[in-house]
């Protein structure tokens, strides 16, 4: 238990947990007992000290009551001599302060103060004189420090205007800043107060300071700067600077550990330059990189002190340590020991001995592994923060450093649309490592940033333009890595080079299966030496290499002749892993499976790409089959499409069931209604059935019915729905209901579609598949919105958002968000719509997906239109069109989306003829696809245009057609509700869907042939 009295009374357990000690009188008791730590205090003394001259009638019982309350939270014992609090002097800050002050460790002593001593118990009779004594000791300690900044001294002087020593310190500090007149003003003021209030003259000491100030003897003085010259600006690492400063405040040894090129030396130099002791000339820097023998270490440190020694080599180390200790013991000191890794044992012994000899010393060390001695505080120094797809990259530490160094070698270089992608790539591929970024920036003297990016695969030849004055191991990227590599043992070298096969790092099980049996102790040694990094994911360690180290390790693996064997084990391990986890992506263990896939994704992709390149057909097919569904669930469609294409290129070598499955997936990903070749789709579906693929791969339960439906083969689509519905697999049955709902919507059976969706949702929920649940909720929300129940739709979208967020599906989460925003706008709650847009934008920035932001532009424009912000909507429309055309996200839908948005903006502007033209484009695209729900929405939009043009008969016809095509009007749209109010309920029609489609085209002035 610890008690703090230098401020409000505070009690903590050993682990720092605060202890609630109760009311004012109990606080007085604990404070009084703590002033006699470990010693009994007589009851009579306590009564006098707590109540003074007015004790309660039954003072003994009152004291016992207080003690009883205190015992519930603090160790208080009754002994023959009185009551004793179970703490030692080290447990009470008052006594630690006095010990540190006596030892001359004034910064540490003063850091214990949290305010006025005994601040919250001053009403107790014992408190005032004790507090006065402590405050006097505090003032003396502050004065003994000798040098405080002007602001701190001014505050103290204002509080104690007659304290002459304090006035002298303030005068010295002001003169040191060149403020001689201010210093003389302080003297005049103090002299006047002494005369007026005490009738005395200033002391001789203060008069001497005054005279020195008059003579100009106290002007600014140069403080010895023994740190390496800083020729470049210091960029980034603000958090690390604060952390290290905090560690140095409480620990005597702080070691910055991290890989080569992380900037440990520069960071240590910056920390030392900002340390208060630097201004007092009490900081030294010893560079150990050039030291080859342990016995030379003391000599190098002495040379940093500009002290040399000679004599018998056998006596040299001992004499050197004595000389070093003598210099450092003259006051509080900070010693930087830079680059200890190659002398780690000698550096540890040297530092231990030095800290033992010099109590006022603090050591800041840099190393690629810890010194591993008692009292060491570690501060891991890793890469600078790097962007990962974010649009705005300017605030990332790696980018800031690269730009700073780039502008130095190529004036005028800046971050803009022409450079941002390359700068982002350089920072990411070079791991955000400062030295690598500086070497890359130096290349701008003779190369463009694009040329640098294109050559990053050959980084060790590329990055060789370091400073000529730097140490040889800091002039090239290869030399940086080789310095660390040469410090490894044979067993460490073996594991390190084999570890290169893991681009995404690995857990212990994978390393054991692929690299080395029982690798744990060798692996932890590589972690200690900053070759391998370790992170915890839900309590389990995962190991990884920085990309630059991994590239070097891969070279060593290639040279060893064992790469083929290790890569083979790597690929087979991930085939088994994906085969084990893929079925779980459609169960209640879905999130667990996704965690595994997210951690292993780059490894799986590397195994797959390698198998494709080496034409290991069955292995490639197994790896693709084991990860394809995860990609679809996460919305990684581009990677899925590319991988399916490349595996299918292996042709007839693929097993028939796999070829049919992947071809079906390829068609469904590319399918656009009305475009997919019906005969080819049917042939692929039959191949999946005949090869037995439908029994092996549950994803076909959705893919085959939808492929048939999208190719407008209704009969085949229903057959495949029935096949899936009869499956023994519950997920396949849920998928059948999901696909069936699409067909019922197309038939205009909205009630039947909703029942199918409800069954799908219940079944997906029962088996724990969040993807299916989120998809179904989105469909249900759109259906509810069409009934006019905006709030009901909002509730469903919010549930869908919760599920998509839990699933960590970026596409689904953004879609749910922007549909929420639009639905709020349709309901007229424009404030909520704006909040959802902001939330969606923040999500897109966080995940760094620019394609998703394109979709969001469309939603923002619609929200602005419904809020009456036409100018804003027009600007957003232009932005959306520019980005949508350049993006592959919307595919062939881009023309339709642009036309719909142009029509709505034109309506808001009163340009009804332009709106008609744009609406006609949308009618063309939706009718060509025979997409009935989308065609109904366009028909409603064209009806609105016709009404505004004064052509109400045409508007009524379009409303009737929209109602027939969808099965109902979109009564959640306030514009449609307004049309119904103006024109009346549309009459029911008895037409076929094909005839209705023809008539909508006719109303839009399009060919109906």
Please characterize this protein's 3D structure.
Keywords: DNA-binding. One of its GO terms (molecular function) is DNA binding. InterPro entries: AAA_22 (IPR049945), BTAD (IPR005158), OmpR/PhoB-type_DNA-bd (IPR001867), P-loop_NTPase (IPR027417), Sig_transdc_resp-reg_C-effctor (IPR016032), TPR-like_helical_dom_sf (IPR011990), WH-like_DNA-bd_sf (IPR036388). The protein is mainly alpha-helical and 1009 residues long. Among the domains are: 2-144, Arc Repressor Mutant, subunit A (Orthogonal Bundle); 149-215, Tetratricopeptide repeat domain (Serine Threonine Protein Phosphatase 5, Tetratricopeptide repeat, Alpha Horseshoe); 238-309 and 318-380, Rossmann fold (3-Layer(aba) Sandwich); 397-465; 831-1004, Tetratricopeptide repeat domain (Serine Threonine Protein Phosphatase 5, Tetratricopeptide repeat). Helix content is 62%, strand content 5%. It has 48 helices and eleven strands. The strands form four sheets. The chain has a five-stranded parallel sheet, sandwiched between helices. A two-stranded antiparallel sheet has the order 1-2. Strand 7 (333-338), helix 15 (344-357) and strand 8 form a beta-alpha-beta unit. Helix 39 (810-827) runs parallel beside helix 41. It starts with a strand and ends in a 6-residue tail after the last helix.
């Amino acid at each position: 238990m610890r008690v703090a009295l230098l401020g409000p009374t505070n009690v903590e357990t050993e682990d720092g947990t605060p202890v609630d000690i109760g009311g004012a009188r109990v606080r007085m008791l604990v404070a009084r007992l703590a002033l006699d730590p470990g010693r009994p205090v007589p009851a009579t003394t306590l009564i006098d000290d707590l109540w003074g001259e007015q004790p309660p009638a039954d003072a003994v019982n009152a004291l016992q009551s207080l003690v009883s309350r205190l015992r519930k939270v603090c160790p208080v014992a009754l002994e023959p001599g009185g009551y004793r609090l179970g703490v030692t002097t080290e447990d009470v800050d008052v006594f630690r302060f006095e010990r540190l002050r006596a030892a001359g460790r004034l910064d540490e002593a003063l850091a214990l103060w949290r305010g006025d001593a005994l601040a919250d118990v001053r009403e107790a009779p014992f408190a005032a004189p004790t507090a006065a004594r402590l405050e006097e000791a505090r003032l003396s300690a502050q004065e003994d420090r000798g040098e405080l900044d002007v602001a701190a001294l001014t505050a103290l002087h204002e509080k104690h205007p007659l304290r002459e020593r304090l006035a002298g310190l303030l005068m010295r500090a002001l003169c040191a800043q060149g403020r001689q007149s201010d210093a003389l003003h302080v003297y005049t003021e103090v002299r006047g107060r002494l005369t007026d209030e005490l009738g005395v003259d200033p002391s001789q000491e203060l008069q001497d300071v005054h005279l020195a100030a008059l003579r100009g003897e106290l002007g600014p003085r140069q403080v010895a700067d023994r740190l390496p010259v800083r020729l470049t600006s210091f960029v980034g690492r603000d958090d690390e600077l604060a952390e290290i400063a905090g560690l140095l405040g409480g620990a005597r040894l702080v070691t910055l550990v991290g890989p080569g090129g992380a900037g440990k030396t520069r960071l240590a130099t910056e920390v030392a330059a900002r340390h208060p002791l630097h201004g007092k000339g009490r900081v030294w820097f010893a560079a150990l990189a050039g030291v080859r023998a342990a016995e030379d270490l003391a000599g190098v440190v002495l040379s940093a002190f500009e002290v040399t020694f000679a004599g018998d080599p056998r006596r040299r180390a001992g004499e050197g340590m004595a000389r070093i200790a003598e210099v450092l013991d003259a006051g509080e000191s900070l010693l930087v020991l830079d680059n200890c890794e190659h002398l780690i044992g000698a550096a540890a012994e040297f530092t231990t001995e030095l800290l033992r000899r010099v109590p006022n010393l603090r050591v800041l060390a840099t190393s690629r592994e810890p010194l591993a001695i008692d009292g060491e505080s570690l501060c891991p120094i890793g890469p600078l923060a790097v962007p990962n797809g974010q649009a705005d990259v300017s605030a990332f530490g790696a980018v800031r450093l690269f730009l700073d160094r780039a502008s130095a070698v190529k004036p005028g270089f800046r971050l803009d649309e022409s450079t941002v992608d390359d700068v982002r790539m350089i920072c990411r591929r070079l791991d955000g490592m400062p030295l690598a970024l500086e070497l890359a920036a130096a290349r701008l003297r003779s190369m463009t940033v694009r040329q640098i990016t294109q050559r990053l695969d050959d980084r060790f030849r590329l990055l060789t333009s370091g400073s000529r004055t730097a140490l040889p191991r800091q002039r090239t990227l290869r030399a940086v890595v080789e310095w660390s590599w040469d410090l490894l043992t044979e067993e460490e070298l073996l594991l390190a080079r084999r570890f290169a096969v893991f681009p995404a790092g690995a857990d212990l099980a994978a390393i054991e299966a692929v690299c080395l049996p029982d690798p744990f102790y060798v692996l932890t040694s590589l972690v200690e030496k900053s070759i391998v990094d370790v992170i915890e994911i839900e309590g389990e360690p995962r190991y990884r290499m920085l990309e630059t180290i991994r590239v070097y390790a891969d070279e060593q693996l290639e040279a060893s002749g064992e790469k083929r064997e290790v890569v083979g084990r790597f690929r087979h391990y991930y085939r088994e892993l994906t085969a084990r986890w893929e079925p779980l992506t459609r169960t209640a263990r879905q999130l667990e499976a996704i965690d595994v896939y997210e951690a292993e994704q780059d490894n799986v992709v590397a195994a797959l790409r390698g198998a494709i390149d080496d034409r290991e057909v069955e292995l490639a097919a197994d790896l693709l089959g084991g990860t394809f569904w995860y990609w679809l669930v996460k919305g990684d469609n581009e990677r899925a499409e590319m991988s399916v294409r490349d595996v299918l290129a292996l042709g007839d070598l693929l097993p028939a069931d796999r070829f049919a499955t992947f071809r079906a997936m390829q068609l469904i990903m590319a399918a656009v209604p009305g475009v997919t070749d019906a005969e080819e789709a049917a042939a692929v579906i039959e191949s999946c059935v005949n090869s037995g693929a439908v029994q092996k791969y549950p994803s076909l339960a959705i893919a085959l019915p939808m492929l048939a439906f999208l190719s407008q083969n209704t009969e085949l689509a229903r057959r495949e729905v029935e096949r899936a519905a009869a499956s023994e697999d519950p997920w396949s049955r849920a998928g059948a209901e999901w696909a069936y709902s699409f067909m019922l919507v197309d038939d205009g059976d909205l009630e039947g579609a909703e029942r199918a969706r409800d069954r799908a949702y219940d079944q997906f929920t029962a088996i724990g598949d969040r993807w299916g649940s989120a998809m179904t909720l989105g469909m249900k929300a759109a259906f509810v919105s069409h009934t006019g129940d905006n709030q009901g739709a909002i509730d469903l979208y919010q549930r869908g958002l919760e599920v998509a967020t839990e699933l960590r599906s970026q596409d689904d989460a953004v879609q749910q968000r922007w549909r929420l925003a639009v639905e709020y706008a349709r309901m007229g709650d424009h404030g909520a719509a704006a909040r959802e847009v902001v939330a969606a934008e923040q999500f897109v920035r966080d995940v760094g997906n620019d394609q998703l932001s394109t979709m969001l532009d469309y939603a923002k424009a619609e929200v602005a239109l419904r809020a009456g912000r036409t100018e804003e909507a027009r600007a957003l429309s232009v932005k959306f069109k520019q980005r949508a055309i350049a993006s592959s996200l919307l595919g062939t839908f881009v023309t339709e989306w642009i036309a719909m948005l142009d029509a709505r903006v034109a309506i808001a502007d009163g340009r009804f003829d332009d709106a008609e033209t744009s609406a006609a484009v949308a009618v063309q695209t939706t009718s060509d696809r025979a997409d009935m729900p989308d065609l109904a929405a366009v028909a409603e939009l064209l009806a609105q245009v016709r009404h505004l043009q004064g052509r109400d008969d045409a508007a009524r016809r379009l409303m009737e057609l929209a109602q027939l095509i969808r099965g109902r009007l979109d009564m959640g749209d306030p514009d449609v509700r307004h049309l119904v109010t103006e024109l009346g309920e549309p009459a029911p029609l008895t037409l076929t869907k094909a005839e209705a489609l023809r008539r909508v085209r006719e109303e839009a002035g399009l060919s109906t042939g």
